[in-house]
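job 3f2a | input accepted
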Amino acid sequence: MRICTEQGIYGERIPYAPEEKKKQIFITTNPENSAKHHQSIIERAMAIVPLKRGDIAYVDLGDDKKHCKIIGIRPGIVISTSEANIESPLIHMVPVTRTLRDLDSPYHVFVDKDDCINLKVSGTALCDQVVPVDRTQVIRKFGVVADARLMDKISRATRLRLGL
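job 3f2a | predicted structure (164 res):
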């Protein structure tokens, strides 16, 4: 293990003592081992069957309670293209919540269970919280958006939010 005094690409940032708050260090492992580890993570993710645009899957969004983003295990709708999902270990999803909240927001879309296959409860697609998801975070696919109009509404809300 090495200690670096400058920012690097490996390791975790750890602040110095309080009197030197502005300085930071990185504790790193051997870069060769880190590169191999990173490659093994990518290979493991790529071995998982890719999802298609419009698929609905349970995904683990972590437990970061310090920020205003949605967390936990919840359904998400795949918005990245099927072609991109084949080529990349990452997919982009819009989280879905059962709560019917802020439906007057241009970034929230009502997801009717009748417009989807195998969705048991209607909810809200949170297009203001698009998340990149490593394939290893996907727990399982369980449904698909069957109505093209719903997928179009989600796409428009996402583009509006991202300014595209």
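job 3f2a | The first strand starts at residue 2 and ends at 4.
job 3f2a | closed
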